[in-house]
Amino acid sequence: MHKHLNLLFLATENLLRHRTKTVVVCLCIIAILTPFITAIAISEGIRSQSLNSVNAGADLYLTSDEFGRNAAISLKYLDEIKKIFGVTKIVPRIVGRGFLQNKLTVIVGIHKEDIPEPVTCISGRVFENTNEVIVGHELAKYFHLNIGDQFSMRCQQRKVFTVVGIFSADSGIWGASMIFMPFNDAGDLFGKENVATDIQIYSLPGHNSEIATDLYDIFQNEAYRLQDKQMIELYVKKGFMLKEGVFSALYIVAIALGVPAILVTSGFGLSERKKEVGIMKATGWQTLEVLELISFEQLLISLLGATIAIVLAILWVRGFRGAFIAQFFIAEITMLPNFALPARFLPLPCFISFFFAFLLTMVGSIYSSWRASTVSPVVSLQS
């Protein structure tokens, strides 16, 4: 044990003596790992927030079926749905997208009493009358909207809305550029009457099967789709897996360009290293001891580079809000978001990053060191 500690201390001394090599290899590791750790943290944070929203949402989601996809559903069945045993609450919604000048926004038409609890106004109040809206904090900041300001949407310029409240982006990352308005106003805006994009159904535990049977009797002559919370959760997970897969595929290309740099820089000063190995062999060092020393050096430099990469990734997310990379995972946001990005720095991605850095540096140095340690010390000293 004492011998291994001495080798570890000697490896630390070697890294300090060869500062140029240490700094260059660390910079290569940091450049490769920082974007990867940042992207995984943002993706995991958004995934977690999305799943929390799903778990806090309705138990069933009812829509019409059109060509195998969700379609608007008529409101004429609301009274019958309310009477189904096990149904505690139903919430019809209109969810769509529209342009406010040059910015694409999410529009939610909903009754006042059905507004989700996390949506709380930081200024103003919730809408009470026709053509009143509450807007997300980022949207209000982007257009310099204040309480009492009026605007119209590009899809229906004759309809003028009045801002009566601004809600915080803490209610969710998607709420930052969202507009809540009365249900009927949203129908007028999109030119759709007596329909909803979906009907949220809240039910008593264990009654979903009975509710599904009753809905089948109600909609026996019409095509409809009924999706439960577990199915929505599955869609969310698949969506993030797809995004992470696309990002990983693109990132592999970047790594392919960075790997040769690490392989070259980890062998920086190769002739000097051969002489060092020759001196060690001449003074009685064994080949395994030389390789262990080299392994300790790569372990320390990988640990240093990965640690700095994790710290920079945290700074990138917390300080710069994931600038230049958050847009890959969240559509329609600015280059520098005005809200705190959800991020989760899990142990596994950080451990994988360290292991990847260690593997690369070992590949770049262990073979050349082994070759130098197996030849005659005289040859190593003459090279």
From TrEMBL:
Transmembrane intervals? 20-42, 160-183, 249-270, 290-317, 348-370
Main localization, broad class: membrane
Q: Which InterPro entries match?
A: ABC3_permease_C (IPR003838), Lipoprotein-release_system (IPR051447), MacB_PCD (IPR025857)
User: Could you name the domain of life of the organism this protein comes from?
Assistant: Bacteria
State the Gene Ontology BP annotations: lipoprotein localization to outer membrane
Name a GO CC annotation attached to this entry: plasma membrane protein complex
Alphabetically ordered keywords of this record: Cell membrane, Membrane, Transmembrane, Transmembrane helix
What are the subcellular locations of this protein? Answer: Cell membrane
Q: Has UniProt tagged this entry with the keyword Iron?
A: no
The annotated topology with respect to the bilayer is: Multi-pass membrane protein
Residue stretches making up the MacB-like periplasmic core domain: 36-190
Family to which this protein belongs: Belongs to the ABC-4 integral membrane protein family. LolC/E subfamily.
Which protein is depicted?
Answer: ABC3 transporter permease protein domain-containing protein
Source organism of this protein record: Candidatus Brocadia sapporoensis
